[in-house]
Amino acid sequence: MVDRVGCVVIGAGVVGLASARALAMAGHEVIVLESADMIGTGTSSRNSEVIHAGIYYSKDSNKARLCVKGRDMMYAYCESHGIDHKRCGKLIVATDEQQVELLDDIKGRAAVNGVDNLTFVDSKKVLEMEPNVTCHGALLSPSTGLVDSHSLMLAYQGEAEDHGAMIAFNSPVIGGEIRGDGILLRVGGDEPMELLCDHVVNSAGLYAQTISRSIEGIPAESIPGQYFARGVYFTLGGGKPPFTRLIYPVPDPLGGLGVHVTIDLGGQVKFGPDVEWIDSVDYTVDPARGELFYESIRKYWKGLPDGSLQPGYAGVRPKIHPKGSHATDFMIQGPDAHGIKGLVNLYGIESPGLTSSLAIAEDVVNLLPA
Ligand SMILES: Cc1cc2nc3c(=O)[nH]c(=O)nc-3n(C[C@H](O)[C@H](O)[C@H](O)COP(=O)(O)OP(=O)(O)OC[C@H]3O[C@@H](n4cnc5c(N)ncnc54)[C@H](O)[C@@H]3O)c2cc1C
């Protein structure tokens, strides 16, 4: 038997949950289908938990627009909903003389994106602010911060449910077809079922392309490539954190923001993520990669003691372009992009997807009027 439903969101990560919340609040009947047995087990629990300011992204990109908007929405949401967060700020440090000029470019690009509060800090002032950091100069970003991403997801889930949304766990979408009377989804798991939906939001993160390919009728040429870039973290052994702010090197144009320092809200210092292109999703942390971390970190923290890093965890970036491409954008596809009424596909929702989650959800609602 086929059940008829209003709107299905595939995936209960931070973006799927934010979308479910926004859709339910806009009056949609919402069911979230999640293959795991709880929320946020994918990329949403394997990231740096940084509220990004919106500094680096290309002019007029979705990332630039949604990060700046999402950051402001996120701070307001955390404050009004009692979610643990901290506007701790970050320093982007030039580790050699050439990089000092790049700081100028970064400041200029940030201003174009509407992030106009970055200030230059000279090396002496950096030492006063962060006595363990050695550099040739830095930019201070006061609107970068941290958020407890699990509490955030629980809040999104709670509000979605308060507005009538339901989450079905252990419910993987395994295929479907585009029909004249709606979008049919086949759901596997313990209780297989078929749902005929007016609206579908494909927010399956690393597997969004897999799902689109499994739904007959979605034009193949509208589905981007599917690539994976792992980032591992190493944690610093106990004691007082050596920094009070987030410390980032000048970013690598070919991927990732460099081996940076994040201090989570519990005071745990972690370094990472690095960038390693892989063929399939795999969260293994190879302890040998630690050697490269020591080298990168000592460019700005000379005092990093030998033997102080422990393998932490890994996340995998959902990429839509192969290795070697310049940083790419979020791909948010509504009916205009693929020609299918009622369908939104979210591809390549890598960083700053956590920061942007509330703003992405607004886009989703606008693409699917109730
Ligand atoms: C290493 C790393 C660091 C990052 N750091 C930051 C940061 O500091 N700040 C920031 O803003 N962003 C950061 N990000 C990005 C951010 O984590 C992601 O953009 C965000 O978590 C994406 O959420 P999502 O809901 O799209 O995906 P996910 O969290 O991956 O959720 C997708 C969900 O879909 C489910 N699913 C998959 N297939 C199916 C199926 N067939 N049927 C049903 N369900 C399915 C999965 O189980 C999963 O729960 C980082 C990302 C990485 C990889």
Summarize the structure in words:
The protein is of the alpha/beta class and 370 residues long. It has two domains: 2-46 and 150-224 and 327-367, FAD/NAD(P)-binding domain; 90-142 and 227-319, D-Amino Acid Oxidase, subunit A, domain 2 (D-Amino Acid Oxidase, Chain A, domain 2). Helices cover 28% and strands 28% of the residues. It is built from nine helices and 21 strands. It has helices at residues 14-25, 62-81, 97-112, 123-129, 149-162, 208-214, 290-297, 335-338, 353-367; strands at 2-10, 30-33, 50-51, 85-86, 90-93, 119-121, 138-141, 145-147, 166-168, 173-179, 182-187, 193-202, 215-216, 227-236, 246-249, 260-263, 269-272, 276-278, 309-319, 331-333, 343-347. The strands form four sheets. Strands 1, 2, 9, 10, 11, 12, 13, 20 and 21 form a nine-stranded mixed beta sheet that branches. Strands 14, 16, 17, 18 and 19 form a five-stranded antiparallel beta sheet that branches. It has a four-stranded mixed beta sheet with strand order 6-7-5-15. A hairpin with a 5-residue loop joins strand 16 and strand 17. The longest helix is centred in the first third of the chain and has 20 residues, at 62-81. The protein is elongated, with a radius of gyration of 21 Å. The chain starts with a strand and ends with a helix.
Query: What is the CATH domain class of the largest domain?
Result: Alpha Beta
Fill in the CATH topology of the largest domain: FAD/NAD(P)-binding domain
Q: Uncertain regions: pLDDT < 50 for 5+ in a row?
A: none
What is the SS-derived class?
A: alpha/beta
